[in-house]
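Dataset card, provenance and construction

Sequences and ligand SMILES were collected as paired inputs. For each pair, a complete structure of the chain with the small molecule in place was predicted and serialized as structure tokens. The example below shows a pair involving zinc ion. Curators did not alter the output after generation; any descriptive sentences attached to a record were derived from the structure itself.
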Amino acid sequence: MPDKELLLAASDLIRRTGCIELEIGHSDDEGREWYAVAKYQGTRVIHESTGPDLAALGLAMQLLEGGRCKCGRRATLVGASDTKHCLWSRTGERFNSGCDAPPMTIDKPGDIAAADREWRKRAGNS
Ligand SMILES: [Zn+2]
């Protein structure tokens, strides 16, 4: 059975990275092969897995990894928080950052370059 909360949390995270047109479906008649596909900055990104929840989670991880968290460290869903990484975790239907840095306001969600500029501005002011 797919984990509905995980599916919703992963879909929400995919949306928050700035993706549009998220589609989740199965590619075989038995429903054993699932895919999650979305458009990220004009490029189609896809992840395949054995369930809709895992396909969405895989795509979310693919998009989040390497992105900068509002605290300035690289966001990750695996491992531990350290000086370079901020470990995000899931509570119910939502993934949250592992830090309490104030929210970052950028014009275009998912614009990593804009997030980098904002973070540098912040770092310079503290
Ligand atoms: Zn963080």
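Derived descriptions for this record:
The chain has one domain: 4-123.
Residues 69-71, 73, 86, 97-99, 101 surround zinc ion (CB under 6 Å).
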